[in-house]
Amino acid sequence: TPRPANRVCKFAGCTHYVVDHGLCVRHGGGKRCSAEGCSSRAKHFGRCWKHGGSLECKASGCSNRAKSRGYCWSHGGGTKCKTEDCDKIAISNGLCWAHGGGKRCIVPGCRKQAYERTWNYCNSHFQQYQK
């Protein structure tokens, strides 16, 4: 179903939902970190994760940032994959990487995991194109 026009980000070409002031999170909507000079998005306590706005994992001896239920990904935090009998953590669309969550490399025929930081290439193809 199409999104109502008043709920779509006003940034040119963007189709994401509005969070605040007519903008989605990617284009400046939502609360900002209260630390002086920081423009990152606030998570908890009015601060971004760099300035203390995250919770520490509840697992004994773990100092990673908690995702959901108070635990980091390594200790079971995050949303579980919605595929029946799968106990992995969902990456996107409620699915883990094995069941179709996350991005794939843009090279035809390559099914490896890709990242925005590698311009949607897998690490292998990104290194090839860097040369």
UniProtKB/TrEMBL annotation:
It holds the Pfam family Zf_WRKY19. Residues 7-29, 57-77, 78-101 form the WRKY19-like zinc finger domain. PANTHER family: EMB|CAB89363.1. This is WRKY19-like zinc finger domain-containing protein. It comes from Phytophthora sojae (strain P6497).
